[in-house]
Write a structure and sequence with these properties.
1028 residues; Amino acid/polyamine transporter I; disordered N terminus; transport; transmembrane; AA-permease/SLC12A_dom; chloride
């Protein structure tokens, strides 16, 4: 401000006549001519129709330049690629089916479907089994709805839930959940590997067992899984390290296997509608037996007698019950569904039998005698944990957002359709399995009663090998995908630098592979394989996925409740209550399934969170937790003090500068209504007025004015604070307010100031204060809004319809895009439609410009009509010259009047001196005629200067041309608009009276014929973003 004052003083001195040199008009005209010529040389490339914005265009891009730079962008974390492959030509962007639906299908359908779903149905019964599947599907559906809202709230780079949570809830939550997601993905690979080994050893090649007959010893079976699982992990790790290309191609094969296998099961169910004579079980009383050849399944045969009567003394249950052969697959027509309605939960060591009689299920003798026993204690909640991994994989579409032609459309549709499809398959499978298979066979987890066969495989058409080979290959493919994705997720977390100890894993090998991350993934995966049991792995990894899904729901709920300006999801079918229900379901399922596994997952998350909070690198991603700090007290203020908010958290913190009239009442009441209508951004509002005078003398006036200001704010429902400042000069008082108002991160970032309507009549002071305030706001890097025609603005309790027209000439941070969106959140403007106009320069391709602008608005999630206005005629009209000449003549008249006033004051002082000398020396020393002659001569010189200025200044002509041309176009297009929002041209750099007066005239011409105008000038930072 000091430089401006000094400059102002120098300008004032320039227009005062010197006693030795007469006037300085000629020198001043020469200097201004030199300045104009220099500026013309520098700005010759600017479109003549936009010359009024020449100062802005030097530092801020024209719209055509801006939108063309962002129309094509890359937004992905690099996916797994083959480092040895030659660079391929850019492929076409994927649609919803290929890019989202099928990958989700592949990731959701997994090993549990083939090797555990029948056991879940048999154990839980049709009703509880249906509820188990429905609960899991509801969790993923609610999470998918929340994820769709987040994924369509801007461009989501690859990274799935980690990216969405970290950018929505902050680096602490993001890092913690990212590590949980990584751990879950790694353990999923272990589960797939163990599941693949189980399929091979149990159903395809039982002879390959290393530790003997595992049908008689569960430990031997799990030891086999550990050994073969380790070997398979090493083999798959080598494939991932050496042949990513093979992994990507194998994914297609795995998907085909999954789809064909499911089709084979459905065909087989209807093919066996009357049952299947191939599978029979041997049942003693109500207990299911194993390893009993069907020809020996009778009491008359010595095989059973030798088994139950080893010393001539027979087991009591054997003596009391008969042995029967039972058909395993009875078919839908048999009515077996009614036998499978109710649950049959058992404790470990109890016998699998019909009913719940203690005589049938309890092992009283201590020997199993080839009777099949429950290997784990089952319950409704445990089965949820075991089944839940079957519904995970919903993030596959969001992970590929960078490869999608229209991610904001494809992700919600593809993901939700995939969940609906898989949920339909799972729920129908529950009903079909319950209506087709005998209860005892459903509960035989490993198919030991039918000779170690897979139940689902024996339902399928044409034979069991379709399912065995298909399930093995699909499980193998899912494991390879997990081993490929997990290291890259870990590397992405490490590269974000939020967890310092992960820094070594951010590096890639020479081939571009995350080798270090892959090694760590293999180690963790091996730990999971050492558990050796799918039934232990499934609930454990369910915890990690449930934590991720819970935080996705939390992120959506927080963003929705905060209503941050950047929260504008294109997906509209979401609600914060659905997200909270999803979060509650996730937490409930975690605790019900396994409270100790839940504590492990939560403890891991808390440890990582605290580690990032105290030791991690500081990141600012515009997350919702930092947005909540705007409503908190001391702690939040200290956090907000760390730096400016992220673009996503930017909201207008409004400072309303209200002018008071002589009665100390706000001059423009509706400026408070306008501030209220902008409050949809949930920002802070401070209203301040400045009174001229001495604070010690007019303290009571200041108190009364503040009370009046508070009353106006209350009446107009402005939520915020008010204050009144007493200053010697209004301009200096406003400058002090703008520089010092606010506290820490709660400082205003947007100033609203009224238009000085009577600036012509009131002389220099009115517009000088206005321009000084504009300069101060710019120097403080704050945004500025100048409503003109404020008395015509609507009341807050009115509803209006029509158009809000945005004339976007210069990009200054996107404030012009954000303000109408915020206004439309208020009931007053909600029914208005947005129309965006921009001006094409001569060299612009207006068709491409319109296309790019539509693309930009689409990614901003703002619905508006777009029109590109071409102003090809750059010829300066006679009216422009005439209007400029009138403006300059007015300035010269004002300058002449100023000179005369100063001459008069000088003459008066000289006359006083003359009178004194007459009193002292006598009348002969008086020289009055000479003085009068000097006065007349001065007036004549001023008039002569006024009459000689017949040719307007070219510098002013160009700006007047811009104002007139733009005004003509704006009035033509937007005269009936409810509100016209446009860029406010920057004030003149030179602090000179003529330039400042001309600037006000240009703004008047620019807005002539428009009833309601909002002139906006950004603060030099981005306030809106296409990213989530």
């Amino acid at each position: 401000m000091q430089s401006n004052s000094a400059k102002d003083d120098s300008d004032e001195m320039e227009i005062i006549p010197s006693e030795h040199n007469g006037t300085v008009h000629e020198t001043k005209n020469e200097d201004s001519g030199d300045i104009h010529r220099a500026e013309e040389n520098q700005k010759s490339s600017i479109d003549p129709n936009l010359y009024l914005y020449d100062d802005d265009l030097e530092t801020r891009p024209h719209i055509s330049t801006f939108i063309s730079s962002i129309a094509n962008y890359e937004n992905t974390i690099p996916a797994a690629t083959d480092p040895d492959a030659k660079p391929a030509a850019p492929s076409a962007r994927m649609g919803t089916l290929i890019g989202v639906f099928l990958p989700c299908i592949q990731n959701i359908f997994g090993v549990i479907l083939f090797i555990r779903l029948t056991w879940v149905v048999g154990t839980a019964g049709a009703v509880c089994g249906f509820l188990i599947v429905l609960t899991c599907c509801c969790v993923t559906m609610l999470t998918a709805i929340s994820m769709s809202a987040i994924a369509t709230n801007g461009v989501v780079p690859a990274g799935g839930s980690y990216f969405m949570i970290s950018r929505s809830l902050g680096p602490e939550f993001g890092g913690a959940v990212g590590m949980l997601f990584y751990t879950g993905t790694t353990l999923a690979a272990a589960m797939y590997i163990v599941g693949a080994v189980e399929i091979v050893l149990t159903y395809m090649a039982p002879w390959a067992s290393i530790f003997g007959d595992f049908t008689k010893d569960a430990d031997a079976m799990y030891n086999n899984f550990r050994v073969y699982g380790t070997l398979l992990l090493i083999f798959m790790g080598l494939i991932v390290f050496l042949g990513v290309k093979f992994v990507n191609k194998f994914a297609t094969v795995a998907l085909a296997c999954v789809i064909l296998s499911i089709i084979a099961v459905y065909v087989g169910i209807f093919d066996n509608i009357h049952g299947n004579e191939k599978l029979y079980m041997c049942v003693l009383g109500k207990r299911l037996l194993k390893d009993i050849p069907l020809e020996n399944c009778t009491k008359e045969d010595s095989f059973l007698r030798d088994l139950y009567c080893p010393d001539g003394k027979c087991e009591e249950y054997y003596l009391a019950n008969n042995v029967t052969k039972v058909k395993g697959i009875k078919g839908l027509a048999s009515g077996v569904f009614y036998d499978n309605i109710f649950p049959s939960f058992l404790e470990k060591g109890q016998f699998i039998s019909y009913g719940k009689s203690a005589i049938d299920i309890e092992n009283t003798s201590g020997e199993s005698y080839n009777q099949i026993m429950a290997d784990i204690t089952t319950s409704f909640t445990l089965l949820i944990g075991i089944f839940f991994p079957s519904v995970t994989g919903i993030m596959a579409g969001s992970n590929r957002s960078g490869d999608l032609a229209d991610a904001q459309k494809s992700i919600p549709i593809g993901t939700i359709c995939a969940i609906l499809t898989t949920s339909t398959v799972y729920l129908s499978s529950v009903m079909f399995f319950a209506g087709t298979v005998d209860n005892l066979l459903l509960r035989d987890k490993f198919g030991q009663s039918i000779g170690g066969k897979l139940v689902v495989a024996n339902i399928a058409w044409p034979n069991q090998w379709v399912i065995l080979i298909g399930s093995f290959l699909s499980t193998l493919g899912a494991g390879l995908q997990s081993l490929t994705g997990a290291p890259r997720l870990l590397q992405a977390i490490a590269r974000d630098e939020i967890i310092p100890f992960l820094a070594p894993f951010a590096k890639s090998s020479k081939r571009g592979e995350p080798t270090r991350a892959l090694l760590l993934t293999i180690v963790i995966c091996q730990c999971g394989i050492l558990l050796g049991n799918v039934d232990l792995l499934a609930p454990l990894l369910s915890m990690f996925f449930l934590m991720c899904y819970g935080f996705v729901n939390l992120a959506c709920a927080v963003q929705t409740l905060l209503r941050t300006p950047n929260w504008r999801p294109r997906f509209k079918f979401y609600h914060w209550s659905l997200s909270l229900i999803g979060l509650t379901l996730c937490i409930s399922v975690m605790i019900m399934t396994s409270w100790y596994f839940a504590l492990i997952a939560m403890g891991m998350a808390i440890i990582i969170y605290k580690y990032i909070e105290y030791r991690g690198a500081e990141k600012e991603w515009g997350d919702g937790i930092r947005g909540m700090a705007l409503t908190a007290a001391r702690y939040s203020l200290l956090r907000l003090e760390e730096g400016p908010p992220h673009t996503k958290n930017w909201r207008p913190q409004i400072l309303v500068l209200s002018k008071l009239n002589d009665n100390l009442l706000p001059k423009y009441r509706k400026i408070f209504s306008f501030a209220t209508q902008l409050k949809a951004g949930k920002g802070l509002t401070i209203c301040v007025s400045v009174i001229k005078g001495d604070h010690t003398k007019i303290t009571n006036k200041a108190v009364d004015a503040k009370a009046t200001l508070r009353k106006y704010m209350t009446d107009e429902k402005v939520k915020g604070f008010c204050d009144v400042l007493v200053a010697q000069q209004i301009g200096e008082g406003l400058s002090s307010v703008i520089q010092t108002i606010g506290l820490g991160g709660m400082k205003p970032n947007t100033v609203i100031i009224g238009w000085p309507y009577s600036w012509r009549q009131e002389g220099r002071n009115s517009w000088k204060t206005f321009i000084q305030t504009v300069r101060t706001v710019a120097a403080c890097h704050m945004a500025l809004m100048v409503p003109k025609g404020i008395n015509f603005y609507p009341e807050s309790n009115h509803k209006i319809g029509g158009n809000i027209d945005i004339w976007w000439i210069v990009h200054d941070g996107g404030l012009l895009m954000l303000l109408p969106f915020l206004l439309k959140q208020h009931r007053t403007w909600r029914n208005c439609k947005l129309r965006i106009f921009t001006v094409a320069q001569i060299e612009d391709n207006s068709i491409q410009m319109k296309k790019d602008l539509k693309t930009f608005l689409y990614h901003l999630r703002i619905e508006a009509d777009v029109e590109v206005v071409e102003m090809n005629n750059s010829d300066i009209s006679a009216y422009t010259y005439e209007r400029t000449l009138m403006m300059e003549q007015r300035n010269q008249m004002l300058r002449a009047l100023g000179l005369n006033k100063k001459e008069n004051s000088k003459v008066d002082s000289q006359n006083d001196e003359k009178r004194n000398s007459i009193d002292l020396d006598g009348p002969e020393n008086a020289d009055t005629p000479e003085t009068t002659s000097n006065k007349d001569e001065s007036t004549e010189k001023a008039d002569g200067d006024f009459k000689s200025s017949v040719k307007p200044d070219e510098f002013n002509v160009r700006r007047m041309h811009t104002a007139i041309k733009l005004n003509e176009v704006i009035v033509e297009k937007s005269q009936d608009a409810q509100l016209v929002i446009m860029n406010l041209p920057g004030p003149p750099r030179e602090v000179r009276a003529e330039r400042e007066s001309n600037y006000m005239e240009f703004l008047e011409v620019l807005t002539e014929g428009l009833e309601k105008v909002l002139m906006v000038r950004g603060g030099g930072r981005e306030v809106i973003t296409i990213y989530s």
